[in-house]
């Protein structure tokens, strides 16, 4: 259960005259965190006419910077995570309009591609797993296509001759997350939003009500509502939020255009590996999943395993340039679903208040965080859900599974 | 055979008034190339009282920057390269005094270490190879020690349990080449030498005599003698020099101090891999040998193979940070021996003149290049040999094998 008391008790926080006249200008919304989630929230909210400020020392430099940008709810499906699948499918359906808007307003090309994901298998066991997955996906009404090894290589000639077969998820798409950040920053500015490139030191309170964001410098940015979109760093603002960093190491390769034309995935040595090609010849190769806290080191073992697995899928990668090694921290939650919505009963003074179905005034504190591996995919639905919570519009039902209070029930 | 005619015929080269009064100041020696060879030559020459200038757009950024800095003639011995072994042993014997001088004059610590090289073997075939190598080394009077697998692990506990045995070459040493460059620049400055950080466009001639270096900007730096120490780029100054770039990819890892205490080498998958520890916990892991011209790309395959081989030698490297990936170009020669000495009969006008045993005036053009994998090891003997050629001192006999004219005989 989130508990703000520790924040309120931090040294210095009470020294700031929270809510006092110098905590101006007063924004409708302050978003803490300028990853793809926070920026999308800020943009969609600003578009609705609210005054919006985003606080982040280095916009777009967190998990979004590392991300491969796969919009792949189908090929990422797991047997136990159907709420996540429904959420992902709903957000994937929003991506074409989100993209058209964002490209239109920013004038930037997101390298949005819709050629699908090809999931490949090697041995007999792998094939059995893919067959089973295909049946499960079909039972959910998802569109997948079973391919022979030859069928896979017809689509992607660089695939290993050892590939025995595969599944093509034609509805999966992908995008360049760094371009998304750049476009969101441009679109947000156009919509009148403000970005403050400083670190947020905590929340500002008036009694038990959140009234803004306290910068690390001590200055308070007043806001009617604060949206915590700080990914794995969110618990530093809202202690007790059930979010932990899941370290990912990810590589960028550079090859000739057309080396691959689709996202290629495979289960190699028990770990899912993927290669995501861009229009400019870059290939994102990911990713490790490590419970290592905020360990920012690129390790010999992480890079080794990624290259080893990629070689098994696509032997020709050995000839490509290794142009970048990156570490990112996914904001993980206990059930792999994000936290989207008001944080209720989190005031510093006392016990939880009963949740109101529609608050009479905008919630003072909301979460748009914990997106784990799916921040880019879930950006449209996250943004529109938060905007709905803020303006009193109806919130999509599928977002109910993301209620931040679900872990304390 | 070196042939300067093409250089002399280059567009613009005759437009420069070579040897005219504006080609001043006139140095005794101009060295082209500020790698470990060029800087060592410059420093030792300046120490003898000659006026010296070094021309390099980016000192220490070539092969020296990539180099692991092994001073390892014993463990690097091959059956067919005894002249190289003799040269290496002679230079290794000079290193303690060279180091003491250099550290004393520069005030810098070279991280010079003398704990020896441990060459390890896995299977039966590898052990047989090492046994044979040990016998060969002993027949040459080299000091090596045969160790069991347990003996190897007693010296280096991080070694793989699969190591079957090894050879310890106690006389091998190593040094941090980047510190050597930094120290040489400081010592050279103290000895009155000058460094011009511009690219050399070619040589300057008066008739068939070299009279200086023409910078890419067109300016001529006049010099009585020019020393070509431009490594793999040397043929751009002296067309026809039998030197080619041999690409090496090399990694830097960062671990706890004492993770390894010696240079560890092994033949893995048919390729020699080595790990060179520094006092600060850095470990240099090398290196690929690629005939790829000046292909400056770090490749997925190169990094993969280095990490794979290192893991087999020392499994725990997977936990270390991969802090750097570097590409360098070794200056390779047909016989793997460097070119050290006067370049004779290379004038633009015509055929080779007969070589004089001791020229009446200093040679106008010399080579100190083509050191392949051994530039750091051979720096002391190269520097003193070139200084001897320039001043008329006796030249060490072992350097005769490096006569630049040997390929045209």
Automatic annotation (TrEMBL), chains A, B:
SUPFAM superfamilies: FAD-linked reductases, C-terminal domain, FAD/NAD(P)-binding domain. Residues 354-363 have a biased composition (Pro residues). Residues 1-21, 327-365 are annotated as: Disordered. It is an enzyme of class 1 (oxidoreductase). Residues 28-388 form the FAD dependent oxidoreductase domain. One of its GO terms (biological process) is thiamine diphosphate biosynthetic process. Pathway: Cofactor biosynthesis; thiamine diphosphate biosynthesis. It catalyses: glycine + O2 + H2O = glyoxylate + H2O2 + NH4(+). Keywords: Oxidoreductase, Thiamine biosynthesis. Its EC number is 1.4.3.19. GO terms for cellular component: cytoplasm. InterPro entries: FAD-dep_OxRdtase (IPR006076), FAD/NAD-bd_sf (IPR036188), Gly_oxidase_ThiO (IPR012727). The keyword Protease does not apply. Pfam families: DAO. GO terms for molecular function: flavin adenine dinucleotide binding; glycine oxidase activity. PANTHER family: GLYCINE OXIDASE, SARCOSINE DEHYDROGENASE-RELATED. This is glycine oxidase. The gene is thiO_1.
